[in-house]
Amino acid sequence: MKTVCKAIIEDLEKIVNIDSEVIGNTSRRDYIENAIKLGHCIIAKEEEYIVGFLIYDTNFFECSFISLIIVSPSKRRKGYASLLMDYMMSTSPTTKVFSSTNRSNINMQKVFNTNGFIQSGIVENLDEGDPEVIYFKSK
Predict the structure, then answer these.
(1) pLDDT digits 0-9 by tens, 101-123
(2) Residue-range domain boundaries for the chain
(3) Distance of CA 67 to CAs 42, 60, 135, 136, Å?
């Protein structure tokens, strides 16, 4: 059974393990811990196992900004990113929600498009030669 809910501090190690599985290190541990404490981390579960998470903030021109969506590689293409985004849209503290991904990240662009996000701009010079595409959706 798939479920989505806000993360609690007891979930931290499992979330960091998923993040480390994807990026190869635990460098975002403090960032994830802070997001959990602020109530800005959402987790997707399969049965009782955490399989993915989403982190957002509200510092992007007073709008929600999804800064990170990570799904365990073994659980990708099973709808977990969409579940996380649906939950985010239904609970967002703002009516406008933004996010972004690199132009080279075709899979994430497909996730945004599938979930009704539209392109809203491009930011150059974050990653050399790979512009960041901004996405937007309104409640």
Answers:
(1) 999 999 999 999 999 999 999 99
(2) 2-138
(3) 12, 10, 11, 13
Q: What is the DSSP letter of 10?
A: G
What is the reported pTM?
Answer: 0.94
Q: Which fold has domain 2-138?
A: Aminopeptidase (3.40.630)
pLDDT for the residue 20? 97
Using alpha carbons, list the distances in angstroms from residue 112 to 9, 95, 107.
28, 17, 9
Q: Which residues in the chain come in under a pLDDT of 70?
A: none
